[in-house]
Write a structure and sequence with these properties.
The chain has 2 helices and 14 strands; from the N terminus they run H-H-E-E-E-E-E-E-E-E-E-E-E-E-E-E. Helix content is 6%, strand content 39%.
Length: 220
């Protein structure tokens, strides 16, 4: 943050920001991370321009359930009613197929004087801890009606027993996109349930609460 500057001051300095080169450097994007946390707000889309932000990495086709915390009714004292917050669906997906845990991070502060005095807020990341490799997916779904998961990119095997632990605040569906074998069964908390299966994969019917789903191939 440049304390005495505005946008035009930095433009007059040709945006000569020395620390930016090192910060950007040779950074590369990991297209298949082990942990994806993404919030989709449909109101931010512009479909006519092809701007639809309903996907991140191996999580896609997010559709919010559309519940609203504020019903828009006026309070008894006649005060102005604030605009309700836009609908938002939040997906937090963690794959155990990588054998990698979340890296610890530390928030830091810095400062400098070039090209102008500034204050810096930063975050540094440590190494990823190793965890046991497992054919398991952990999901936290907040106001989500449906979402697709690309199993191959998440390093999950549809031909082996797949465990999905899902914590959800509303009913919804999760499409596990992959090539499952004919006769694959789905269990919720150890009990068989009906689940749609097709060329794209298996669709889990998610119910509210914290539940464990097992997708079991034939013969297991």
């Amino acid at each position: 943050m440049y304390q005495p500057a505005d946008h035009f001051t930095l433009a007059a300095l040709s945006y000569d920001i020395p620390m930016a080169t090192e910060f950007l450097g040779e950074a590369r994007v990991d297209r298949n991370p082990h942990h994806v946390s993404f919030a989709y707000v449909p109101a931010s889309d512009d479909r006519e321009l092809g701007l639809v932000h309903d996907h991140a990495y191996w999580v896609s086709e997010i559709r919010p359930a559309g519940t609203q915390p504020d019903d828009g009714t006026a309070p008894d004292d006649g005060a102005a009613v604030a605009e309700p917050a836009p609908v938002k669906g939040l997906v937090d997906a963690f794959s155990h197929g990588f054998g990698r845990g979340d890296a610890p991070s530390t928030r830091g502060l810095g400062s400098g004087t070039e090209p102008l005095p500034y204050t810096e807020v930063n975050r540094t990341w440590g190494p990823h801890p190793s965890i046991p490799v497992a054919n398991r997916l952990d999901l936290e779904l907040t106001d989500v009606r449906s979402v697709d998961i690309a199993l191959s990119r998440a390093r999950l095997n549809p031909r082996a027993v797949l465990t999905v632990r899902a914590e959800a605040d509303s009913a919804g569906e999760v499409l596990l996109a992959g090539r499952f074998r004919d006769g694959t069964r789905v269990l919720r908390d150890g009990k068989p349930i009906e689940a749609e299966s097709g060329p794209r994969g298996v669709t889990l019917p998610i119910v509210p609460g914290d539940h464990t789903y097992k997708i079991v191939p034939p013969g297991r």
